[in-house]
Each structure stands twice: as C-alpha cells, then as structure tokens.
Amino acid sequence: MERRAFRAMGTDVELLLDAPPGVETFLTLAAAEQEMSRLEGIFSRFREDSELSSLNRAGSLHAGPELVQVTQLAVEARLRTDGRFDPTVHDALVAAGYDRSFEQLHGRIATTTAPPLCGGRIAFDPLTGLIELEPGFRLDLGGIAKGYAVDRLCDMLAAVGPCLVDAGGDIAVRGGSWPVGVETADGMLTLQLTGGAVATSGIDRRSWSSDVGRGHHVIDPATGRPAERDLLRVTVVADSAAEAEVLAKSLYLAGSAQATREADHLGTPTVLVTRDGRTALAGGLSS
Questions:
Q1: d(CA 249, CA 202)
Q2: Do 245 and 170 meet the contact criterion of CB atoms below 8 Å apart?
Q3: Which among 274, 275, 272, 277 has a CA at the least distance from the CA of 285?
Q4: Looking at residue 208, what is its pLDDT?
Q5: Nearest to residue 154, comparing CAs of 132, 137, 171?
Q6: Nearest-5° angle of CA 85, CA 11, CA 13?
Q7: DSSP assignment of the chain, as one string?
Q8: What distance in Å separates the CA atoms of residue 259 and residue 262, rounded to the nearest whole number?
Q9: pLDDT tens digits, residue range 106-134?
C-alpha cells in the first residue's frame, strides 16, 4: 500500500493506492497531488488569483471547463434540494465571519448585523463557458468543489490500482474494500466501502467565536445566517464525493426528522448525530 499526504483546499489530504512501489505508482501519486493544487487554483474563494475569485469580482467570466462543470453541478443541486444547497452563500459566509481560510480565524470574529440574501441567479453556457451572476451575488463552491476534486483524484489513481482519497472527511474509493470510520454519539461506526464516496456536513468542526455567539460554516440560505438545527452532523454515502457533499448539506438543513424521511425515501445510507447526543441510521443502514 502506497501513501501520499499533503495539504490542499484548506484541509489535510491523504491518498492510498494499493499498488506495488515503483515509478508508475510514484508518478501517479505525484500527478494527483499536482492536480489537487491545480484545482485549488480554480475553486478557492480565498485566493485572489483563482478563477472563482475572478468570476466573483467581475460578475461574469468565460470560464474553463472545470469551473463551468462544478457551477452546473451546484445549480442542479440547488434545484433538486429546493434551495437548501445554495452556491450563492458566499456573502453570507463572509458576513458570519468566515472571510478568510479557516486556519486564519482567531479570536472573536466580527459579523454583519443584517445577513445578505442568498438564492441569486446563475446563468451559464456550457458551450462558450460563459458564467453570469446576478448583480450583488458571489459564489462559494467550497464543499462541492472539494468533492469534485476528490472524485477526480480517485479516478486518476484507479488507473493504477484500488485506491482511496480522503480530503478532510470527503472520501472516495475505487476498487478493493475499504473500512471507513464514521463518528457517532456512541463511538465509531465502520462502513465497508467497495466504491462510491462519503461526506459529512456539520457544525462541530468549522466553528468560531463571533460577536453574536458561536458561528459556523453551514449557512441556511433561507435566512443567510448559520443554520440552527437539532443536528450536530450528517454523514452520507453516495456514488460520488460531489454528490455526497450535496446530500450531506441538504439533509443537515432538513433537520433530523425530515432528513431521516428523505434518506429513507432516496435509499441514501445516512448517519445522523443530534446535538443532544443521539445517533440515528437511515437510508438502509442498520446497527
């Protein structure tokens, strides 16, 4: 088993490749790390030189294929989650204090009293690459872009052998059988994955102290503020890491009762942990 670890997209990334050591294995792992760095240069809202930042500044851009594709994925996700997943939460995140990379958030963070609106219009043309944002709105593609990157790296590694890619809990696997631990209120639950992906959305990791109380990065698009739900975190299994990111965020914002019903209806394996320390399994999972 060959391993490579590095930091990208504001999180720790680990690549596992079940292949014999050698030139091909080494070069594949190195290429995957380089690809993650390249994608970060497209999608980071914290880098002034990123393609996403250029779009947010100008309001329109003839973008490259990756930004167009992920923007399209995000718009489609907003439609099928009834707006719970919303890529136009950028200004709401900034207003809540998340205006720089998470490792740079220190002390008590100032917030904006009146939260910005979400739900801005996004127009894109896949043929020309033109993306146009409604005036006054900017995009945050953090979660879905990270999932997209994890999927991309996993596909690269899979050409050499069974593999796992983990970017801060966004995990995708191809081939083999991989035990993946999921934190619950009662300890660790192990899921055995032979394909697909896992992602978690919650408020117990990326949170901070603000002048109006505890802030976190899960924005409720209906209010423009950090969401107040009975859930601590939601973990889902899906066909891709990008899709798992969408479902985890949407189910978190649904609240525990509705999330359980939706996961069961969709057949989406889901682990829900509530703020009061309960764990619920849905979507076909059983203890």
A1: 8
A2: yes
A3: 272
A4: 42
A5: 171
A6: 110
A7: -EEEEEEETTEEEEEEE-S-SSHHHHHHHHHHHHHHHHHHHHH-SS-TTSHHHHHHHHSEEE--HHHHHHHHHHHHHHHHTTTSS-TT-HHHHHHTT--S-GGG--SSBP--SSPPP----EEEETTTTEEEE-TT-----HHHHHHHHHHHHHHHHHTTS-EEEEETTEEEEEEEEEEEEEEETTEEEEEEEEEEEEEEEESSSSEEEETTEEEES-EETTTTEE---SEEEEEEEESSHHHHHHHHHHHHHH-HHHHHHHHHHHT--EEEEETTS-EEEETT---
A8: 5
A9: 444 445 566 788 999 999 898 999 999 99
Identity of the amino acid at 88: T
- pLDDT per residue as tens digits for the range 32-46: 999 999 999 999 998
Cα–Cα distance for residue pair 241/165, rounded to 1 Å = 10
Q: Which residue has the tokens 């801060």?
A: 168
Residues of the chain with pLDDT under 70: 97-114, 205-217, 287
Q: What is the pTM (predicted TM-score) of this model?
A: 0.91
Residue with tokens 């009662």, as numbered in its chain: 186
Domains in the chain, start-ordered, CATH in brackets? 2-282 (3.10.520.10)
